[in-house]
Design a protein that fits this description.
The chain is of the alpha+beta class and 117 residues long. The protein has one domain. The chain is built from four helices and four strands, in the order E-E-H-E-E-H-H-H. It has helices at 21-31, 66-76, 82-96, 105-111, and strands spanning 2-6, 9-18, 37-40, 59-65. The longest helix has 15 residues, at 82-96. The radius of gyration is 16 Å and the shape is globular. The two termini are 29 Å apart.
């Protein structure tokens, strides 16, 4: 789970990476992700700090962004450790605090209503 920014609007991203294609396909189907991409050669997956190759096998990836990514996070929330839960709460709060200009405003209001004060 990552929060990247394109310009001034945050983009919430959920990504799954695995060397087992069937696992990535199953998760992608369950959460409405785009079909998995891959296989990628193992040499392309390296540790950012050390440059060491992380896998000896080809791998697949599936990604979901925006409101759908928030939905995935909320679905898996009860299964996560306290630290990850705190990060999800932080991401959702930051995501909600920015104006939404992509035409999904009503859908997001229905899915994630603001708490009443």
């Amino acid at each position: 789970m990552v929060n990247r920014s394109r310009g001034r609007h945050p983009v919430v991203v959920v990504n799954i990476t695995s060397t087992d294609e069937d696992v990535v396909q199953w998760v992608a189907a369950k959460f409405g992700m785009v079909r998995p991409y891959g296989p990628y050669p193992p040499e392309t997956r390296r540790d950012r700090r050390t440059g060491i190759c992380l896998s000896k096998k080809p791998y697949w990836q599936a990604t979901v962004t925006g409101a759908r990514a928030i939905g995935v996070m909320m679905t898996i929330y009860p299964l996560l450790h306290v630290r990850r839960r705190a990060r999800i709460r932080q991401l959702i709060a930051e995501w909600r605090s920015h104006p939404i200009d992509n035409g999904n405003r009503e859908q997001i209001r229905r899915l994630f209503p603001q708490p009443t004060q």
